[in-house]
Amino acid sequence: MTETTPETTEVLEDVTEESAPSNFTTESTGEAAVGAGQSAIAPGYGTGRRKRAIARVRLIPGSGQWTLNERSLEDFFPNKLHQQEINDPFTALDLQGRFDVIVRVHGGGPSGQAGAVRLGVARALNQIDEETNRATLKKAGFLRRDDRIIERKKAGLKKARKAPQYSKR
């Protein structure tokens, strides 16, 4: 077991219930913090694709406001995981809150659309300042298109690979 020394008891006495936080949350605050990353601040454009989804992304220097098909980020992607995924390029470059993002996305489902938006944002940031941003985005894997798509159904099979049950006699 561990021994309690007078030094550790003093530290424990310093932490009282009053100084400890009263509640904890995993939710982020509503305000967007402005990142301190180094990059040119200019308009940019990028197209992203994932599965059957296609996203056309425009970045405009601004306050960090998201507009996806004329809806807010929280309305379009209620899932926090999708919100985090499309913010990843800004987080990697520490450029949160520096650009307003305008997106037109169609096709696919929510996961494919989030992946398409992420690729579009990464390509737009790469176009804005290739010298500064490209190495970081490439190392993080944000400039690579995920080419996995649904395999087509074949004749004589129930699905793409599922065959009907084999009967010997």
UniProtKB/TrEMBL annotation:
Keywords: Ribonucleoprotein, Ribosomal protein. GO terms for molecular function: RNA binding; structural constituent of ribosome. It holds the Pfam family Ribosomal_S9. Residues 1-47 are annotated as: Disordered. GO terms for biological process: translation. Transmembrane segments: none annotated. GO terms for cellular component: cytoplasm; small ribosomal subunit. The keyword Ribonucleoprotein applies. Coiled coil: none annotated. Residues 19-29 have a biased composition (Polar residues). The keyword Transcription does not apply. Belongs to the universal ribosomal protein uS9 family. PANTHER family: RIBOSOMAL PROTEIN S9 (PTHR21569), SMALL RIBOSOMAL SUBUNIT PROTEIN US9M (PTHR21569:SF1). This is Small ribosomal subunit protein uS9. It comes from Brachybacterium vulturis.
